[in-house]
């Protein structure tokens, strides 16, 4: 079968590899669609721990169960499924175990014609989505669901700022927050994306390349209850200034690096929380899919391309006007 393999530092190749052999408790899934995440790019660039050359990349996928090892799992055969990319979250819902990894490094991932996964990683595809849309959900959906609801405690009527609206995780967070009945604001890097967010239901926003904070704070009646961000850097202090008293800044990445200092004075006096978050537990994966089904959420798709073009698709992962996921269809 064809698979996208990390063969050397910075080098990915679409190569022929043996189809996975089933072992106890596993199902063989024929992938229909997979999507790219920034994580895949970081892995190629060597910016992730535990890099294994020869591993098949990919955390997101939707497919059909073609075969199972154990008779008891036979009802899965022929079902359309999304794959939970968590590996070994462990028993504590609050935090992942030290054995935790994510599908696609070091374990073989979804960028292949077939994958063998434990049956407990399978969930039915939400019925209102096609396989291209469903493939966009796992990693980004789980990350944004936990960050918004478990860590951020978001409730209807609250003000939330989704930072970096154009990002894969942020896109889903934006849709989830709207569906939850929050007042959703964004920041992003272009006027086009800002206008797109407003068309989709944002109450306002700003371009972080031109402004360092939300100037129309009066419109929010006191600031934000919650800010979700994956960039970090100096703007963390601007976020601290626009949070309401007892507001929360939840971050799931730090792609712009560290701030030189943090305004601890304002943080303690205004009872603010700075909260880290990563992916989510298995229960949250199920809850996220239920939420998507209940609210009939359709992930934004940037483009659908043939799987044979996956290497060139990585050239567009940082494209400035991209809004939504890059899907590769088998
Ligand atoms: N902890 C976890 O479990 C977890 C899970 C998923 C992702 N992540 C991390 O989160 C980050 C985003 O992942 P992704 O898959 O969503 O990547 P992505 O689709 O490439 O999105 C990255 C987005 O970051 C935004 N951004 C860049 N500089 C910014 C800044 N200075 N201020 C605000 N936003 C900025 C941009 O938004 P605009 O396009 O709007 O300008 C860009 O689209 C990555 O670093 C990734 O490794 C962590």
How many helical stretches? 9
> In the residues, how many domains can be counted?
2
Strand content: 25-35%
Helix content: 10-25%
Could you name the CATH topology of the largest domain? Quinone Oxidoreductase, Chain A, domain 1
Task: Let me know the CATH homologous superfamily of the largest domain.
Answer: Medium-chain alcohol dehydrogenases, catalytic domain
Briefly, what CATH class of the largest domain?
Alpha Beta
Shape descriptor: globular
- Terminal CA distance reads 11 Å
| Helix-strand category | alpha/beta
Architecture of the largest domain in CATH? Alpha-Beta Complex
Largest sheet report: 7 strands, mixed
Which cofactor or ligand species appear? Answer: NADP nicotinamide-adenine-dinucleotide phosphate
In N-to-C order, the SSE pattern is: EEEHEEEEEEHHEHEHEEHEHEHEHE
Mean pLDDT: 96
Low-confidence stretches: none
The beta-strand count equals 17
Whole-number radius of gyration? 20 Å
Summarize, please.
The chain has 330 residues and is an alpha/beta fold. Helix content is 24%, strand content 28%. Strands 3, 4, 5, 8, 9, 16 and 17 form a 7-stranded mixed sheet that branches.
């Amino acid at each position: 079968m064809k698979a996208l393999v990390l063969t050397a530092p910075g080098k990915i190749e679409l190569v022929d590899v043996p189809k996975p052999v089933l072992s106890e408790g596993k199902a063989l899934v024929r992938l229909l669609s997979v999507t790219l995440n920034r994580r895949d790019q970081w892995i190629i660039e060597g910016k992730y721990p535990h890099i294994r050359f020869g591993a098949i990349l990919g955390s997101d996928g939707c497919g059909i169960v073609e075969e199972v090892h154990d008779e008891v799992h036979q009802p899965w055969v022929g079902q359309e499924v999304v794959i939970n990319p968590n590996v070994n979250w462990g028993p504590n819902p609050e935090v992942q175990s030290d054995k935790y990894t994510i599908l696609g490094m070091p374990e073989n991932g979804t960028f292949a014609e077939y994958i063998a996964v434990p049956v407990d990683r399978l969930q039915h595809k939400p019925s209102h989505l096609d396989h291209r849309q469903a493939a966009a959900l796992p990693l980004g959906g789980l990350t944004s669901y936990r960050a918004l609801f478990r860590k951020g405690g978001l409730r209807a009527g609250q003000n939330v700022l989704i930072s970096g609206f154009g990002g894969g995780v942020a896109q889903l967070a934006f849709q989830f927050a709207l569906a939850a009945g929050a007042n959703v604001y964004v920041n992003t890097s272009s006027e086009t994306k800002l206008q797109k967010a407003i068309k989709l239901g944002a109450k306002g926003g700003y371009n972080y390349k031109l402004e360092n904070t939300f100037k129309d704070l009066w419109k929010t009646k006191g600031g934000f209850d919650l800010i979700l961000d994956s960039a970090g850097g100096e703007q963390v202090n601007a976020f601290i200034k626009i949070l309401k008293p007892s507001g929360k800044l939840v971050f799931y990445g730090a792609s712009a690096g560290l701030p030189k200092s943090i305004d601890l004075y304002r943080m303690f006096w205004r009872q603010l929380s700075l909260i880290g978050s990563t992916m989510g537990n298995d229960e949250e994966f199920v809850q996220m899919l239920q939420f998507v089904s209940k609210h009939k959420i359709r992930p934004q798709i940037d483009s659908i391309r043939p799987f044979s073009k996956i290497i060139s698709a990585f050239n567009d992962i940082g494209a400035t006007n991209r809004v939504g996921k890059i899907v590769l269809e088998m």
